Amino acid sequence: MKALVWHGKEDIRYDTVSDPEIEDPRDAIVKVTSCAICGSDLHLFHNFIPAMLPGDIMGHEMMGEVVEVGSGMDGRLKKGDRIVVPFTITCGECEQCKRGNYSVCERTNRKKELADKVFGHTTAGLFGYTHLTGGYPGGQAEYLRVPFADTTHVKVPENLSDEQVLFLGDIFPTGWQAAAQCDIQKTDTVAIWGCGPVGQMAIRSAVLLGAKQVVAIDLLPERLSMAEAGGAITINFKEESVIERLNDLTEGKGPEKCIDATGMESHVSFAQPDTIYDRAKQLIAMESDRPHVLREMIYVCRPAGTISIPGVYAGLIDKMPMGLAMNKGLTFRMGQTHVRRWTDDLLRRIDDGEIDPSFVITHTAKLGDGPEMYNVFRDKRDSCIKVVLKP
Ligand SMILES: NC(=O)c1ccc[n+]([C@@H]2O[C@H](COP(=O)([O-])OP(=O)(O)OC[C@H]3O[C@@H](n4cnc5c(N)ncnc54)[C@H](O)[C@@H]3O)[C@@H](O)[C@H]2O)c1
Ligand SMILES: [Zn+2]
Ligand SMILES: [Zn+2]
After folding, report:
1. Which atom of ligand 1 is the closest one to the Cα of 385?
2. Chain segment 154-182, per-residue pLDDT in tens
3. 20-44 pLDDT per residue, tens
4. Non-local CB neighbours of 200 within 8 Å, separated by 6+ positions
5. Confidence class of residue 317 from pLDDT cuts 50, 70 and 90?
6. How many Å apart are CA 202 and CA 184, to the nearest integer?
7. Closest residue to atom 39 of ligand 1, CA basis
């Protein structure tokens, strides 16, 4: 079959690879009908996340048709079913899965010993996302083996298009979880850094969850326009001070809830000297992430407020103002998304017409054009916000 394969830094190729096969009774094979490129794929593309190996198949946001099931499926999934595949692989039986903490499932990471050593404890297996999380082949491919498929799937009805439901596998529940973790009250100002696909989903989620005002921060006009269309007040951080504007919008008190939908690749800018420092340290491998947004959030967040972090961080960050966070009594919530915790509710909301996540798609291309679409998405060329690929 054909797939997008990681060969090294900024080197993704459309290769012929072996077809996946059933390896375990709980496996299913899915013929992928749509998949997407995620901001997390860019961190792998730039080789900022350790433990990728040449030959790894990319992709963790995908859906398709079940073409084969293992013998242990218990009737829960059958040939012909149309499913979205959550990027977090979940066993459904361990202590963490029983609590709904699916992204830290204790059983699905087949490289558990590595994760135990690096993270202190294992986290869930993830598709197409480094050997620290199992090194499972991803779904930017014609076919995908889904391990633990009896619990790692979301069945979707025929009346909804691929474009409407595809993002149930990642960015929609990710934006939703980021907002839900803020316990939004109707008096709250929610500030969201980053208007990429995750930020866009967080904006709409915060609006649906009843925030008083949602403020979205980025520098790309087309992303800020999309944020505004979703109900946000916008701040272009190239043109004005984020801190001054957020204080103005909150009578000097700062937003109660702050969401980091940017992650480890915060932009480098001469107007923000700490970003130059981080970039220099990152280049000599003295720091893995660029945490400018985290510093800004801690500074501007209202005392006793919440910092919610869906943005991905890989390892060690420097110059974190923990003293400010401690004295202000801030609460930190973060994590890879517990996808299955949210998908029943979110699928119902899509079906009821409350939200249509396809608004975020700006580019649709063939899987074979994937290597070029990585460059387009990375460079935000042609106003690119979200790419969907068709095998
Ligand atoms: N927690 C999870 O399970 C999960 C799931 C999906 C994605 N993610 C992560 O979420 C983050 C966002 O993903 P995406 O797909 O939206 O990516 P993206 O790269 O398209 O979006 C990031 C946005 O942040 C903006 N940005 C950069 N520096 C900024 C700054 N200083 N202030 C404000 N905005 C700034 C960029 O202009 C860009 O629009 C990534 O780190 C990704 O890895 C996490
Ligand atoms: Zn993702
Ligand atoms: Zn589990």
Report:
1. 20
2. 999 999 999 999 999 999 999 999 999 99
3. 999 999 999 999 999 999 999 999 9
4. 175, 223, 226, 227, 230, 359, 360, 385
5. very high
6. 12
7. 196
Sign of CA dihedral 196, 202, 205, 209: negative
Tokens standing for 310?
């869906």
Per residue in 185-205, pLDDT tens? 999 999 999 999 999 999 999
Which alpha helices (H) appear in 189-315, and where do they start and end?
Answer: 197-208, 221-229, 242-249, 273-283, 292-300
Using alpha carbons, select from 389, 279, 371 the residue that is nearest to residue 36: 389
Residue with tokens 């947004």: 293
The residue whose CA is least distant from atom 15 of ligand 1 is 39
Residue type, 336: Q
Host H or E run for residue 3: strand 2-8
What is the number of alpha carbons within 13 Å of residue 20 lying toward its C-beta? Answer: 29
Which of 44, 45, 312 for mutating ligand 1's site (highest number of atoms within 8 Å of CB)? 312
SS3 (DSSP) at 304: coil
State residue 194 phi and psi, 5-degree precision.
Answer: 100, 115
Domains and CATH numbers, the chain: 2-170+337-390 (3.90.180.10), 172-334 (3.40.50.720)
Q: pTM for the whole thing? A: 0.98
Pocket of ligand 1 (CB under 6 A): 38-40, 42-43, 170-171, 174, 193-199, 217-220, 223, 237, 261-263, 266-267, 292-293, 310-312, 336-337
Interval 244-254 mean pLDDT:
98
Residue 8, helix vs strand vs coil: strand
Spatial CB neighbours of 252, under 8 Å, sequence gap ≥ 6? none
Q: Going by C-beta distance under 8 Å and a sequence separation of 6 or more, which residues neighbour residue 239?
A: none
Closest CA to 157 of 338, 352, 358, 342: 352
